[in-house]
Specification:
Elements (H helix, E strand, L loop, with lengths): L4 H26 L3 H6 L6 H28 L4 H4 L2 H21 L6 H9 L2 H36 L8 H47 L5 H12 L12 H12 L6 H4 L11 H31 L12 H8 L3 H37 L7 H23 L3 H22 L8 H20 L10 H19 L7 H8 L1
Helix pairs in contact: 1-8, 1-14, 3-7, 3-8, 3-12, 3-14, 3-16, 5-12, 6-7, 7-8, 7-13, 7-14, 7-15, 7-16, 7-17, 8-12, 8-14, 8-15, 9-12, 10-18, 12-13, 14-15, 16-17, 16-18, 17-18
């Protein structure tokens, strides 16, 4: 079977590509309105919603960027992946029922729609939509880059193809993504999440077992090899250090409740009572799938340091290199297919919320209604994909670091306004607008001026603290707003 390793992997990927086309065509028949395109008709069952939530959180960020981060930073990455479980608990405790109830009191298709209902301000709708668009471009870039890097490694390892450049792989990835997203919308995304989520849970466990048996003495030997090279990498804080790791605890714990691509799915489930079933399934799926993130990164660093594998051109190659050379070819093929499905459905989720912000939220805030909304929505997804691909090419960062930047943008803009504001009647529209605007200004100033944060503290964590402080202080200093009666009833529950 080893002689046919590349053929087996390619076969699974080819089957997956056909599956994408099939799901897209099926979802095209189901998608008859913008409500279907953006909100999957608010008809999702508990299992579909649960798998969609944890799959969207991991995707290319976790399955490609995560191992790359462990490979380059060691245990620092644990603070990013483990505390995300805390983020799920915060999100569901504060938002799951409330967002679903808000979705019932209006014909909402986006998070800015709900924010407008809460604050009664079109300015809040516009600022939140702008933050979502900016975050989407960065986060979508991670998905495109992850798929392109993996596809490049696979095609170049096969004897069926000559040298395939990263640009060519990116073109292939974007073409498939555009077809999948334009035809299916959110319906295609969530049902693909259901299938690939189940695949990745099983596959991640099997890959972790493969990791353990890569060395005679398993994880102990891997830890010793990495420790001998850099004892900080295998320590509790990794190479990032204590303050940097703790800043990730804040950003990925509390900040998890500010990810619009995740919390929007809480508006889509069919029954309000499903929330209590969705959370445990989401956390369980995430925990098992995260084994792939942790195991592969550690194994590849040990393999390279021990001389058993040549050095990687980029840490982001850790996942694809391990699967191609050390996993059973059938398992590798399944994981690659599942990975592409995860990337595809997550990228579609980002395109969905970004498209809604551009062609629904901002025009609506200015009193303009776009005609032929479904057609315009599909055109907008193409434009967003192109912009994200350009950003992916120009950024030059690791996949996980681009993802962390976008996560920070979402967290600083959404956590105060939505997570806190939907649970605190004293919050005002002025506070929401200033918090979002200041978070974007500060985040981009730090990023583009290349200002280094002291003690490796993450810029997103700093911006989140700043926006929360601004939001609370201005709300307390502002005159309390009179709430819409429907909003007040929801907040009293």
């Amino acid at each position: 079977m080893e002689a046919y390793r590349d053929s087996i992997i390619l076969l699974f990927i080819f089957i997956y590509m056909l599956l994408c086309i099939g799901v897209g065509v099926w979802a095209l028949k189901k998608t008859k309105s913008t409500k279907d395109f953006f909100m999957a008709g608010k008809s999702l069952g508990a299992w579909v919603t649960a798998f969609a939530v944890f799959s969207t959180t991991l995707s290319g960020f976790g399955f490609v960027g995560g191992p790359g981060l462990v490979y380059s930073m060691g245990m620092s990455s644990f603070w990013m992946v483990v505390v995300a479980i805390m983020g799920f608990n915060v999100s569901f405790s504060l938002l799951a029922k409330r967002l679903r109830l808000f979705a019932d009191i209006g014909n909402f298709v986006s998070l800015p729609d709900v924010a407008f209902k809460r604050y009664g301000s079109n300015a809040t709708r516009v600022w939140l939509a702008l933050a979502i668009i900016i975050g989407v471009i960065g986060y979508l870039a991670t998905q495109i880059l992850a798929m392109s890097i993996v596809l490049t490694d696979i095609l170049n390892a096969s004897h069926y193809f000559g040298h395939v450049s990263l640009m060519m792989s990116m073109l292939i990835a974007c073409s498939i993504l555009v077809f999948y997203s334009v035809t299916g919308g959110m319906i295609a995304s969530v049902y693909t999440d259901m299938v690939q989520g189940g695949i990745m849970i099983v596959a991640a466990v099997l890959v972790f077992v493969t990791v353990v048996f890569t060395f005679d003495n398993g994880l102990l030997e891997m830890n010793q090899i990495v420790y001998q090279d850099d004892h900080e990498a295998i320590g509790p804080w990794g190479t990032l250090g204590m303050f940097g790791s703790l800043s990730w605890l804040l950003l990925f714990g509390l900040g998890g409740a500010g990810q619009p691509h995740v919390i929007t799915k809480m508006m889509m489930n069919k029954r309000l009572r499903d929330a209590k079933h969705i959370l445990p399934v989401t956390i369980s799926g995430y925990v098992f799938s995260a084994l792939l993130w942790i195991g592969i990164g550690l194994a590849m660093r040990a393999l390279v340091l021990s001389g058993m594998h040549q050095p990687l051109a980029s840490p982001d190659q850790a996942a694809s290199q391990f699967l191609q050379h050390y996993a059973h070819p059938v398992l590798a093929g399944i994981v690659f297919a599942g990975l592409f499905a995860a990337i595809m459905s997550t990228a579609e989720a980002f395109l969905n919320i970004g498209t809604a912000a551009i062609m629904h939220d901002i025009p609506k805030a200015f009193g303009y209604k776009i005609k032929k909304q479904l057609t315009v929505a599909r055109i907008t997804t193409v434009v967003l994909t192109i912009l994200a691909a350009i950003f992916a090419i120009k950024s030059g960062d690791l996949i996980a670091m681009i993802g962390a930047m976008s996560w920070g943008i979402f967290a600083a803009a959404v956590v105060p306004v939505v997570t806190l504001g939907f649970n605190w009647k004293r919050a005002t529209a002025t506070a929401a607008n200033v918090a979002i605007a200041s978070s974007l200004l500060v985040h981009f100033t730090i990023k583009w001026q290349h200002w280094g944060m002291p003690y490796a503290i993450d810029a997103g964590a700093f911006t989140l603290i700043l926006s929360l402080t601004i939001f609370i202080v201005i709300s307390l200093l502002s005159k309390q707003q009179k709430l819409d009666p429907d909003v007040e009833r929801v907040m009293d529950l």
